[in-house]
Amino acid sequence: MASLKAFIIARVLALIPTVLILITLVFFVMRVLPGDPVIAIVGMKAPPERVIELKKELGLMDEAGNPIPLPIQYLNYLSKLARGDFGRSLIWGKRPVLVEIMEHFPATVELAIAGFIVSIILGLLLGSLGGWMGGKTSSAVKTYGAITYALFIPWIGMLLQLFFAVWLGILPVAGRIDTGLEPPTITGLYLIDSVITGRWDSFISALRHITLPALTLGLVISGVFTRVTRTSVEEVMRQDFVVAARARGIPEHKILLHVLKNSFVPILTMMGLQLALLMTGAVLTETTFSWPGMGTFLLERIQYRDYTTVQGTVVFFAIIVSLVNLIVDICYAYIDPRIRY
Amino acid sequence: MMGKYAKKRLAVSTAVAAVGIVIALIVGLIGGYFAGSMAAAPATATVTVTETVGAKTVTSTVEKTITSTVEKTVTSVKTVPAGPAVSRIVIGVTDKVTDIDPSNAYDFYTWEVLSNIMGGLMRYAPGTTELEPGLATGYTVSPDGKEYTFRLRPNLYFADGTPMTAEDVVRSVKRVMEINGDPAWLVTDFVKDVVAVDDHTVKFILKKPVAFFPALVATPPYFPVHPAYKPKEIDSDQTAGGVGPYRIVKWVRDVELVLEANPYWWQGAPKTKQIVIKFFKDATALRMALEAGEIDIAWRTLRPTDIQDLKGKKGIKVIEVPGAYIRYIIFNTKIPPFDNPLVRKALAAAVNRKAICERVFLGTTTPLYSMIPIGMWSHKDSFLEKYGEHNLELAKKLLKEAGYSETNKLKVELWYTPTHYGDTEVDVATLIKEAWEETGMVEVTLKSAEWTTYLEYTRKGMLGATLYGWYPDYIDPDDYTSPWVNASWTGYAYSNPELIKILEEASVKPTLAERAKLYEKAQDIWAEDAAIVPIFQGKLAVAVREGVEGVILDPTMLFRYWLIYKAS
Lengths: 341, 568
Description:
The complex is a heterodimer of chains A (341) and B (568). With 341 residues, chain A is mostly helical. Helices cover 75% and strands 0% of the residues of chain A. Chain A has 2 domains: 12-85; 102-303, MetI-like fold (Orthogonal Bundle), CATH 1.10.3720. In chain B, strand 4 (122-124) and strand 5 (131-133) form a beta hairpin. In chain B, helix 8 (341-350) packs antiparallel against helix 11 (392-401) and helix 14 (497-508) runs antiparallel to helix 15 (512-529). Chain B is globular, with a radius of gyration of 27 Å.
């Protein structure tokens, strides 16, 4: 266990330079882009005095009206960040960035988990089917993986909306829950909160709303899982213990369970890696379904050139993804005893 | 050949796949199906406002004294259509609410929301651009035109029942001046001071005579706000509102805004008890939500193709009216070749406005031949009179006079931004390029820049020909003319001493007739200079489900929620 502890400490320490590099990149990229973000905020009708006033307020200009050099702005930002201050948004009430993030994060987590579950189910089922059956089934599954991976989220989302919401009328087009049915906030995840508080009308409404976005996101991401599962199962199927098991007359479904267990390490690795893709996919899914999560929030703030919020959100994402990857890495040790540190 | 193992494998796989599909798809769908019927129940209709709904008649009087000896009285009688009340109407939009604070809100949609939860001393009569009394019963103007005194209605209350007096108007207007947010210039450029003469009388002392001051008073920066608003800073998410037909009962940014009828409103609580605004990220989802019956009204902003499609749908009604939104080309008169009036005139003559409106916007916009929009008093088709429509012969003649020919072509760059005016912008630019090149004497290079860059380059005067749009601040010809003359934001400072003199005169003349005459003259000079060339005027389109009544739109582009209701 000592080696595992050392590994965890090393990984946590490695997070610091990773996040620092990311902060630096985002900070400078946002500022070297052409176009003045202050003008983007105040609009084209604002008089020049108002622009200067806001620049001073934002720490981009000193009291004498001279621009503050970028490195100084950067150091100021780092110093605040070190104190846990993500800064304040530049627009709409200039609220603390962390507060804004925490308002949107639960929606994304809920969608990501639901999409992830759908993708795992589809990926594991179809992947194992292809790997186990081989031949034409394997080719079909391979094609499925390629097609779903290439699917454009707004397109497939729109098709699902059209079919289930407009034509059949059984699921809603957009949103997260019906007006007035929000459960009391405990975790911020409506499905869980409604179960905890026993609000079944809320649970059903939340389930109805999450079904289409989760299906869309899950379907697109399932392509990757399908491919990895299929390849992994095919490899394991070729191993001696499968032949031996069949020679002993062990029922096929029991053999399948053993095969799946042995195929799981690469699938788990892929799960960790897919988190980044989930977040990317969430931006498009959230936009298509007007899902009030981090994706739409980030996209909107990029459009408004809200420096501090974009920086804060990216840093937050980086920390979350790194932490989840760390957890996945630790999980390997328990699943595959061959992995040592 | 399929062996024993293969058959078993197939059987097991099929069973597993079936179970998987059930888990992944059917559970959610069946749940959704059963929930559908549950959700259809009015689970959220919890409004407790009591009001007898029926035909209502509101009578209001305006007193306007131009001099101490002249008095003018206008009486308007407005009948709100009768109809049985339905508790809730859901409106879908792709717009967003920025600051629910008139001291900093400076976008059309937020102004619309503010106009429904607050009110001004004056307001626009629905369906027109005519001013009518709002919180005031009327006003008087001092002989020098620099003092406007408004008399408030008796018994005005904020949405929580707190009485509203002239002091609240003073506090709110001074708050806007103190905070000095984005729209503050609408107050600070004109108002020197504001005082409460007594509880029901408020006096504005202006820096100079402003003929359109009543129109300014109808804008949100002049709206009295509840004392709960922070006195010296922007209160972006404050929901206390002002004296309006509705009050906010729920506000989740970018998700939904729930409004409830204000029982204390001076006109009586509106007949629709609850208005829910749903915020969509995507116009396609907005359209589908209307078709699916999730929303009753699809408001700003549907795509032109969706508007066309919805027109033919059963159970859906599309209402279109001219909007006060205009688009135009700015020529930088300091940069060659646009410093040559002949070049500008030639390009103005060659523009094919009809093609843009028909091909790009499928008829959802109207060709515009003046900066002052169609439907506004004093509007005159000066550009049409002077240059005609897509007049290639005149364009060629002018270009020849300027020294260009088929072999010595005029080379110009036309700039547009793909990130501010929608997906159609590139098509607008392409059609302008096509029209100019049809002369055979012009070669156009299209260039684009992201919105912030575009604005910055424009401000610095780096761009020759650019495409821009304008949403009015107040509904008056002044707002469609003065902002471009000697304006630094355009980077080119279009200046014509004669035009400046006329516009200044028009802004102080007390009568509409006198002002209209001056603006007509200004439009002719505008066309003659051809420094800014109008292209088209937007139409407002709203799609409503059958049974929704009382939708009244006008060029103010503000949707009055208090007039809409569902006929059962």
